[in-house]
Amino acid sequence: MDGAKPDVEDVVDATDPLAGLVEKTAADPGAPFAPEILALLADLRKADRAAFETLRAGLKRTGCRVTALDEALAEESGSGVANARAQTQTDILLRLAQAADLFHTPDLTCYADLDIKGHRETWLIRSRGFNRWLARAFFDETNGAPGSEAMAAALNVIEAKAHYDADERNVFTRVASLDGKLYLDLCDAGWRAIEIDACGWRIVDTPPVRFRRASGVLPLPVPARGGEIEDLRPFLNVRSIRDFVLIVAWVLAALIDHGPYPVLAFAGEQGTAKSTVSKILRALIDPNTASLRALPRNDRELFISATNAHMLVYDNVSGLQPWLSDTLCRLSSGGGFSVRSLWTNNDEVLFEAARPAILNGIDDVITRPDLADRSLFVTLELISDQRRRADSELLADFETKRPHILGVLLDALAVGLKRLSTIDLPEKPRMADFAVWATACETAFWPAGTFKAAYDDNLKEVVDTVIDADLVGSAVRQMAEKQSKEWSGTATELLRVLGASQPESVTRAKTWPNSPDALSNRLRRSMTFLRKAGVNVSFTREGRERTRTIHIAAASPKEGGATVSAASIVSVPPSTFKDIKDLVADTSADTMTRGPDQAGTEVPTDVGPGASVRQSVRSHVVDIADEKAAEDTMDAADTTVPPILGTGKSTPPIVTLFPRGGRGRKPRGS
What we know:
With 670 residues, the protein is α/β, with parallel strands linked by helices. It is built from 22 helices and 21 strands. Strands 3-2-1-4 form a four-stranded mixed sheet. A four-stranded antiparallel sheet has the order 6-7-8-9. Strands 12-15-11-16 form a four-stranded parallel sheet. Helix 3 crosses helix 5 (66-77) and helix 6 (81-97) packs across helix 7. The longest helix is centred in the middle third of the chain and has 29 residues, at 391-419. Mean pLDDT is 79; it is low at 1-6, 8-14, 80-86 and 560-670.
């Protein structure tokens, strides 16, 4: 029959003494070790290696100790036993490695695709996973273990073949994309993945992209259909619908394979569930045995972590050193790090990655403008002892709902892929790619424009937070607010003017600039955020001596900084609202039902105690022209906030939908 393996008896001639050796060995295990047989086997190995290997495989099936047979043949050939055995082991390892599909990545890192129990696994050639596979194959072949020298020699050859002779492919960590489709690695035992396109999502057994798995990765649940995004909200201790919209947008951005990714910064006093919320978000995207970590000690540690995980979460952060803030900027937008290879002078090891990251701490740890402009700030509310739930109870409840929450997030990714090519933002923020993607996905849950209103308001909070934390920026803003015309002067003069206007406790602080050059550098860092806050700062060269002059002036209303308020939401046509409860804080008592309209689609129908307030907002929102009136209307609608962490209890109002002013400031009228 074509393709059938040749019978052992066909390998040797019938008159040959080796004929029938397999049957003799089954009855007498010592038959192959007879001196005349060993001599014939040695000659056969030299003359016809393929025939010898076929005969050897037949002997192995009978239970013959082929490793001992190889040693006996080495002695018969007259070569050193140890050297011949090592060479034989290397040959065996190289032959076994032919079952692997070798390839290399664009940066020439070498990998192998392995067929294990009917599914494909991808391992770095210099990894424990590949070494284990090769050692196990060697044991199955020889009933012995390969020597360390033979293994090292074989790995060198295998890596060289992957480098020079194999194809080039990309390898991803947890998320990937190919031909307009997204892939999410389930990290399960079958190495399956979720495929998402504009038509929906599905589980595939053999994805067309390759994923690598580092130590510590945990599997995602098999997603389920039929969930709602509101299933996630009870597990996030957020104070308003705005913060919930931002967190969902961040999660959707973290589920794609390219940045930029904004840094999600949680702040709040003790007992606000910062660590728990961070764990829950990581469990939705990239679960890991070490879900929360301490800050790295250097760039190398951070980028190694980023190479081995898709998402980074740093817990209980009390402050960021300048170098770490700059490194997180590179990690957010995509950057690299290089270090000299060990035992070499010229070779480098390169790390390059863009990863979503979460920071949580009691204080607002992000104070440098460049990182703050790449961040989302969310303040969590204190949970009273009466409403607090045990972590074990909360996480157990989350585990039961996690498949449906993941399923509804995948539905939103499909919506984003379908709408992405139609999105063109007239005004693009610093994190433009993130804003475009979040806008493409938002209609899966909320009316068009909801994300922009939430994001603009958060950026306003970021500006206030960073300027308040910067002694120089705060002093310049106070100076601009008090003066009626533009101030001009040198850095030396400005340092003297600012110092005279500030208390001694400020001017003696370590962060207060002690020289004109230091002041100029600090101003250049703060210029962007001061401009957003309505203060224009510029540098010019004037006069024959080209003296560097600083100009400070309050921006005119037409030029001014970002003035975002709750009224920004009224720019969204009410006809696009899918549910008014997505725009005001809902209570557990205020329920919503739906009824079919004339076209057969579903429209919201208000019932419950808060229905009249929300109906009033809906009917009058487009007629509001005055910003103050709009804020009054929205404040009136925000009569309650949702229960926290699934307690089912309503609490008194804390903030409006989009609070006026910066973080920590009271809403208007409070």
